[in-house]
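As a warm-up, study this chain.
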Amino acid sequence: MTVSPAPPQTAPDWPHCGHGANPATAGCRGVRVDGYTACLAHLAEADRAAYLTSLSPGADLDHRGTPFTPELLDRLLDALRAPSTRRPQLGTARFDGAIFTGIAWFDRVAFTGDAWFDGVTFTDVARFGGVTFTSDAGFSGATFTGDAWFGEASFTGVARFGGVAFTGDSWFSGVTFTGDARFDGVTFTGDAWFDKASFTGIAGFVNASFTSAVGFCETSFTGDARFGGARFEMASYLGPLVCGERVVLDGVLFQQPVTVEMAAHRVSCARTRWASTATLHLRYAELDLRDAVFEYPVVVSARPYPFLRAGSDDPLPETELSGREPGVRLASVGGVDAAHLALHDVDLSGCRFAGAVHLDQLRVDGWCTFATTPTGWNRYFPWQWSRRNTLTEEHHWRVRTARYPETAVTRGWTPAPQDAPELKPAAVAALYRQLRKSLEDGKNEPDAADFYYGECEMRRHDTTRPRGERVLLTAYWALSGYGLRATRALAWLVAAMATTIAVMVLWGLPADDPKPQTTGQQVQAGQNLVLTTDTPDPRNPTGPWTERITTERFEKALRVVINSVVFRSSGQDLTTAGTYTEMTSRLAEPVLLGLAVLAVRSRVKR
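Now compare it with the structure written out below.
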């Protein structure tokens, strides 16, 4: 068997040193020092000394691909040290592809131009504590084998760390990022600490991997904080942090129990997966949970007061969010299995529930609010619409099916956004039914009653249901608001009683109370006398109506009505019309009274 020789190492695209080159390798890849044929590491000592002597603070450097030992790096930085500050000062610095063996000390170095460390390999600890990057800084594709220390560093331009591999611990505590910070695709094998760091531009951690502990305690983001697709394998705590715009956690995986504390304008958790329990304490946030996966219980709670600094009673500054409401608003749970989701003190007035499953097992605790219906007087009938809790899906349906949608919006109904599905009444009724069950399980009977009202409303407007059922629901709605509007039922009861009294006074009571008459005859002396007592039929009242309306007749009619309400017979002699009226009132009025009592019960039931 013949073994093919390894292909020769590709030469870099800059004039390189080539020290130690042979057919299998291009040799040293370090860029040649200007005026010489070797890199800084392989210059003759006299030439190296002459080159270092020629440097002055703020000089531009190009040492791409050069291998550095700790001693060589110290000599280079000493040659660039400013006498006034005793800090090394570099202009544009090119270290792309360089290899730093041993500890690389860049502490307190000032880079006044672009600093490029793309593809650099640090075989030991890399220290950039207190470093100032005035322009852009690039570490894309770099490898940090040991710990990486950037504590208190300052990045004024764009900081590029895309694709970096941090094998040891990485420290970015107290770092200031004035421009965008790009950590997309970074692998943090050791601990990653960004405590008290400040991000003014966009902070990108897209598809980053955090294998060990991670810290973002007291971290502030003025722009977006993007963690889409990131993996948190051992993180038990994320935050507390403050973000003036969006925190994007789309597609993020949390593998261990985690507590998330954020004060942010918006938090997006679309397709986020919690493989263990989690608690989200949020402030100011509009939360989106579309298609999120909850394998274990997850609690979303509104934090009523500011987060505290670590080890102190001082509140964490929320300057980026000043002037906004501190509550939490849930935007959507579409596509979510809500069996493991619990909400506490969350505003659900704009939440879209369509597409979620197991909403009957959703836990809604604390002060959670839903959307409400518009109030005001009906434009066609003399009654006022009462307020009730509702789902935003009903708002969308009302506007979409209204004859004049603009008028519906003006009245207070909320139009649907462009991406909202067009739900049929049956689908909205199903949402109401499931959430009603959830509220009933939580002993929240009053709000559950509102959702029963909404369910019946959607069933009444569902044209796919039998006409008889819709007619029955319409009557149920008109008489008592589905057994939930006591005022409506009492109004009908009063109207029925008034009608019964009027009919009784005008036609139901006879002109005079019939008096029993006794008749009989004796055929022969000494025989028994046979007497027959009979009551004549009541005579219908005659004459003008005004003569029939008397105090006596009103009192009799009132007794008939009161007895009818409690399903009792008054024993009053009545005309034929009065008899049938009493029968009708004894049937209708107790039902209306029962509906009123049922409505009151639904509002005070615990």
